[in-house]
Amino acid sequence: MGLRLDDAARTVEAHGIGGAKDLPISPELAIAGAVAALTISFTVLALAWRTPRYASQDVPPRGGHLLPDALQDVLDSALWRGALRVVGLLFFGWAALAAVAGQDLLTNPFFGMFYVWLWVGLVPASLLLGPVWKAVSPVRTFHLLLAKVSGSDPARGVLAYPARLGYWPAALGLFAFVWLELVYPYSTELGPVRLWASVYVAVMLLGGALFGDTWFERADPFEVYSSLVAKLSVWGERDGRVAVRSPLANLATTEVRPGLVAVVAVLFGSTGFDSFRESPTWVRFLLNTDAIASRDWAATVADNIALLVFCGGVGLLFALGTMLTGVGHGQRRRHLPSQFAHTMIPIIVGYIAAHYLSYWLEVGQDTLIKASDPMSTGADHLGTGDWSVNYWLSYHPTLLANLKVLGVVLGHVVAVVAAHDRAISLLPKRHQLTGQLPLLLLMVGFTAGGLFLLFAA
């Protein structure tokens, strides 16, 4: 993928991330302040937080306030669940209409619905509403309808889902998505994106037929992504009912399964690569690569390698940071990365919020305008065609910069709290503080690196 003018224009319109122009503050000051915040947080925790306060996934949480019976009855009703499924089907149908009948133009709303509404929008939606994709997922609805037609139980498949697979299929699906968005040179052409979405639907339905609903919980990249982010919402579960509780208490209940470290590594590493690929250093390197090789594929190969390095590097560094500590009786070091993997979720959410904030707000509005004309015929089916994008936040760059830095710092502070609570519940007393130092240094490195990339983009 050479950095030709037309390619650059397509990338900016399809993935217009605000970079250094949005951050009119000193990067050195921001990084120093973030490191200080993490260090102070750890010190306070070491002095004041000496016993674990949140249950792990193995102990059902008892805290939180249950919803009133009347509201719980509404949420459990077939009418409510059906309404949510209808919302998912309407979204799917409108996106499919644009993908199948729309024109292969950047004005096609399918790109915004796929890259912005679905991918980026899952984060705020899951933070506010809980595991929203599980409730509205069109592939789950199709699976349910097919099961009803065939007279089978949608919860059970032909085979039992292998426990050793864990979240690995979801990790592969997430990597396939970020590869399509960030590396594939034709990511803004309708055919390849439409093909990716079609393969996703087919694989999900086939997996659902084989393994039942468990397949969606552990293999659907969007459902796993949404459910992990939802661990930072206030919506939890207690005795089969919805309970309102601390996000940290919900976060501690993240299920530890094979592949969880890979999932968080892909999510965090790909976001870091997205910033890195827009940095002047990488752009100059790609230009030189093309000049030497005189082939577009040279830059594409470089991007592929860089994406793998970022995702694999995050996973490797996290594994080393969690394993370089003392272990108690009956524990194995290789199990520690999975036990601490949930602490990466606040970091991911904070960095995604910082990296995609202006992109989501502005391109999301633009998508809503274009969605009124899915086939690019000049129609205005939704009545939004004459709306205009509000760029208020971009017109206040200092506020935007502070929000982005705050997102990164707050995410890491929450991660330090979650890691401390898990450490004092897992590690022997002689290692409860010193054993956290490698992970603290890792988080400081992630913070500094994340902010540096955010400023460098």
Short description:
With 457 residues, this protein is mainly alpha-helical.
Tally the helices: what do you get? 20
> Overall mean pLDDT score?
88
- Globular, elongated, flat, extended or rod-shaped: what is the shape? globular
Give the distance, in angstroms, between the N- and C-terminal Cα atoms: 19 Å
Biggest sheet strand line-up: 1-3-2
Unreliable spans: 1-14, 16-22
Number of strands: 3
Q: Supply the helix-strand structural class.
A: mainly alpha
**How big is the Rg?**
22 Å
Oligomer: single chain
The helicity comes to: 55-70%
> What is the H-and-E element order?
HHEHHHHHHHHHHEEHHHHHHHH
Please give the domain count: 1
Give a short account of the largest sheet: 3 strands, antiparallel
Strand fraction: under 5%
